[in-house]
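Final report, closing paragraph on structural work. Over the funding period we assembled a curated collection of sequence-structure pairs, and we close with a single example.
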Amino acid sequence: MFALRKAALAVSLAAATVVGPGVGGGVAGAAPAPVAPEADVAYHGFASLSEGRLDVLVLSRNSGPSSLEEATVRLAFSVPVVPGKLPPDCVWGGDRVVLCSTGALPSDGTRREKALELRTVGTPHEVTLHVDTAWNGGATDKNPQNNDHRVLVPATGDPYVF
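Its predicted structure, as stored:
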């Protein structure tokens, strides 16, 4: 019986050496894994469509608690868009997708603005716009509802807010 207890003690000590006291895993003496920052990225703005002209304004902000060096907002359209000039820090992700860097998003809620003047292929009666975050630097966002929008934009020329 003593040999069994001694073996169990040896296994326990070996596990404590590898895992370490109070640690759920890892190697003893290793630095703890970094914790992802928490940021609340939000997008708001409007889109309008008239005779194939599609205007989109996106306001990006972060309510913290951590600041972000940048994030990437994705604008996906239900119809193809004619490739053309985009604002600085924006790229085409296909014939229906534009990706834009927000730039630095401090945790104080300062807004960053991106305005896009696009043309659709043809003259659709409506476009659906999906706005969401493609990348946020690995931050945790406990309120993702305010950075994921689907907007129906009829070809009335009126601004439809998101």
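The longest strand covers residues 41-50. The chain is about 10% helix and 40% strand. We thank the funder for supporting this effort.
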